[in-house]
Write a structure and sequence with these properties.
Strand order of the largest sheet: 3-2-1-4-5
CATH architecture: 2-Layer Sandwich
Number of helices: 8
Order of helices and strands: HHEEEEHHEHHHH
Shape: globular
Mean pLDDT: 92
Structural class: alpha+beta
Largest sheet: 5 strands, mixed
Radius of gyration: 15 Å
Low-confidence stretches: none
Helix content: 40-55%
Strand content: 15-25%
CATH class: Alpha Beta
CATH topology: Nonspecific Lipid-transfer Protein, Chain A
Oligomer: single chain
Distance between the termini: 31 Å
Number of strands: 5
Length: about 160
């Protein structure tokens, strides 16, 4: 197992702020994870109330697929906060930066707006509070209609 895998596993399963955020997700919420430079895919899935990260393809369809650079994983892992807002803001800043060393890329969005709502993803955004909501608003994603348009646009690119 690689250091990046251990870091991302620890991040989702043990980090205080990420774990608090994950608790807003419903059983079966699933995210495909790829670490840049590694061949084997990973996945995150909510199993009951517990987040789990494992090697291999997910047994259920993923809602979204993300690519992380090892630097982005390191940066998130080094963030010492119990604030969902602080961690969420850093996550979004890494996605928006397009820095090749510290990047998070949306590879695909596989679920629709209603599925994201049912599985609790928007509850995570709400729990993150004004820092994340303000960041999203500056990007035109500060309301449900903006989020729906962005999700629909991204899904059509597949």
């Amino acid at each position: 197992m690689s250091e990046a895998f251990e870091d991302i596993k620890r991040l989702f399963e043990s980090n205080g702020s990420v774990n608090k955020a994950c608790r807003h997700l419903k059983n079966g919420a699933a995210i495909g994870l790829t670490i840049q430079g590694e061949d084997e895919p990973l996945h995150f899935i909510m199993q009951g109330k517990d987040p789990a990260v494992s090697y291999g393809a997910c047994a259920v369809p993923t809602d979204i697929d993300l690519l992380f650079t090892p630097g982005a994983i390191r940066r998130l892992s080094e963030q010492e906060t119990d604030s969902i807002g602080d961690m969420g803001l850093l996550f979004l800043q890494l996605m928006a930066s397009h820095d090749p060393e510290y990047d998070i890329v949306i590879k695909s969005i596989n679920a629709g707006f209603l599925s994201f709502a049912r599985k609790g993803y928007f509850s995570v955004v709400a729990a993150a509070g004004p820092k994340v909501l303000g960041f999203l608003a500056k990007k035109g994603l500060g309301n449900p209609a903006g989020l729906k348009r962005a999700i629909d646009r991204r899904r059509k690119k597949k």
